[in-house]
Sequence to fold (204 residues):
Amino acid sequence: MHLELNRISKRYGYQWILRDLDLEISSGSILGINGLNGSGKSTLIKIISGFLSPSDGMIIHSIDNKKINIADVYKSVSWVAPYLSLTDNYTIEEMYNIQAKFKRMKTESFLEFIDVIDLAEHQLKYIKDFSSGMQQRLQLGLAILSDTPLLLLDEPTSFLDSNAISWYHTLLQKHINGRTVVIASNDSGDLEECNESVDVLNFK
Fold:
């Protein structure tokens, strides 16, 4: 997916979070968004996802030079963020089956999926009984293993231990080719796959 952000600005009340951000994200590129906590990284991710409208400016999503209506962008996006929650009273299999109804999955079956995310011993538990790290692993698995042209990762390792972080990077590197990926984080380790970056503090 190709993205064009033209003079994007966002404010809440009288406070400007972003101002006059121009950015082109080429199809297949991996962009890192960095900046301090509260600087506007998540706001920019939400605008790119189509979930949040800018106060000023315009964003254009396109695939093979065909513009996508903003209301349909969600069909082509996978998104992970600490503020996005899973359904507490579902099991992993129920979450997977719902995801597979809306997104084509890179795994052939639920059994393959749960093996890849290494949570097979917890498959009968409800998600509300998972640790924050297990929930993060599930979110990452659902997003990275969805066959979507745009992958958005906001603070992707925020709840992961060192072993899970290694797992995440391995999974991402395996399924990153051909996708446009945007990673927002103030942790340099999260941005190691990125081939370009933008600092939101430059757009205040």
In short: The beta strands are 2-12, 15-25, 30-34, 56-63, 66-68, 77-80, 150-154, 180-184, 196-199. DSSP finds five helices and nine strands in the chain. The two ends are 27 Å apart (CA to CA). The chain has a mean pLDDT of 95.
